[in-house]
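(Fold this chain)
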Amino acid sequence: MPYDVPSPALWGGSVLVPTERARTRGITTALAAALTPRAKVLYWNSPNNPTGDVFSPAEVEEVCAFAAGSGLAMISDEAYEDLIYDGTPHVSPASFPGMAERTISVFTLSKSYSMTGWRAGYVIAPERYQSPIRTAVLYSTNGVSTPTQWAALEAMSMGPEFLAEWKAGYVRRRDRLVEGLRAAGFETPTPAAALYAFPKIPAAMGTDSRAAAAMLLDTARVATVPGLVFGPEGEGHLRFSFSVPEETIAEGIKALRTFSSLSTLAPR
């Protein structure tokens, strides 16, 4: 495959385009190198899980121009639209000229309103996609429970003050987690959005993210997600969540610092 793109057979037919290398080489060039004759849909996620990265308006516009020029539909995963803490504001691909008719914009209440597990979300899509989407929901989840729908209505009726207070709490947790990770030997940027830090695994723990996650869970009782589950580019990283109480973050950091100070630390 050109541009070091993983084989589609490895990822259910999907061709992955690594963000960092795309930015280095040029987004349009990277997407064009990954395009195949069978491609129908471009899947897009910003703000990003697990890195917390937010694409700039210019980058979003460039991706939209490529999708339109290539005749691709677009699925835009915007789950973390309200949880941006620094820098670039969220821009929806469907807001660009000519994109509303080819974009399925996906939103959820799980992140903005801490309703994780309630499985309440919504899509904005052209009419031709709506019937297939309803069919998929009918034969998968069979719909959203009535109490959940009333809770979702209540959440979406809340004013911007609620989200501002919620975000301020996440910023405190984020900064505390990032500071603690760095003190424990993890190299990590400060995420601009979402609910996660995605640091590199310290050299002493090796590069196998599954083994590193198991090591932290067994030894420090700190639960993480192996970076590999997010694709090949995630290997060598772990995902830590700061969507937990500050006291939990403090205890986790304490455990990590104790763990990192052990003289017996070695890769498995």
Q: What stands out?
A: The mean pLDDT is 90. The longest helix spans residues 160-183. Residues 160-260 form a domain with the Aspartate Aminotransferase, domain 1 fold (CATH 3.90.1150.10).
